[in-house]
Design goal:
Elements (H helix, E strand, L loop, with lengths): L41 H25 L3 H28 L6 H7 L11 H8 L6 H25 L3 H27 L1
Helix pairs in contact: 1-2, 1-6, 2-5, 2-6, 5-6
Length: about 190
């Protein structure tokens, strides 16, 4: 199942998930689902996704300002820039589908900030993972956890959403999250 969905490196754990002792997605099955409703049109899905990317970008920028380590400040800046790229992709998808073709500024005024990617708040992520915000490895681990949580959310939303076009939009965004995770993995390997 996993290899069929684009994962290149899959480990078979004897004993199943109960034998797994590493990180998994956290929270209840419905965590973050309330950000979406099952009848949303594709344009609404894109606005919610954009708002989560914006929330994560602001999260990284805030943590970067608070860091005393210059390497970590640069890392948070890089992570914030990655979120801009994802926002551009989402905005582009929106303008492709929208008959109105709003400018980026007009689009951002329509977007309602509700949560970070994955459905948790800034405080919840920090309380849950307790990263050392002056450690590049901890920062990338936190970013990977957030992206994995977002991927999990999009995949769960995809199973609940009724509108076929909205489901396609969600699946496209989920696939982009996989790319983000892979790039964060390469960044972690470079440290």
């Amino acid at each position: 199942m996993l290899t069929g969905n684009g994962f290149k490196k899959v480990f078979n754990v004897s004993g199943g998930i109960k034998a797994w002792h590493s990180k998994t997605a956290i929270g209840p099955q419905d965590l973050g689902i309330d950000l979406f409703n099952s009848n949303e049109e594709p344009l609404e899905v894109l606005k919610v996704a954009y708002s989560m990317e914006q929330g994560l970008r602001e999260f990284y920028l805030t943590l970067g300002k608070d860091s005393r380590n210059e390497k970590v400040k640069a890392l948070f800046s890089k992570l914030a820039d990655i979120e801009i790229k994802h926002q551009i992709s989402i905005y582009s998808s929106y303008t492709d589908l929208s008959p109105d073709k709003p400018s980026k500024d007009e689009f951002e005024k329509m977007v309602e900030a509700r949560a970070l990617e994955g459905g948790l708040s800034t405080k919840e992520y920090l309380d849950l993972f307790k990263p050392d915000l002056n450690s590049p490895t901890d920062v990338i681990s936190l970013a990977m956890s957030i992206e994995a949580q977002a991927l999990d959310l999009y995949q769960r939303v995809s199973t609940k959403i009724v509108n076929k076009e909205s489901k396609d939009v969600i699946n496209k965004i989920a696939n982009e999250e996989k790319v983000h995770l892979a790039s964060l993995g390469r960044l972690m390997d470079s440290l």
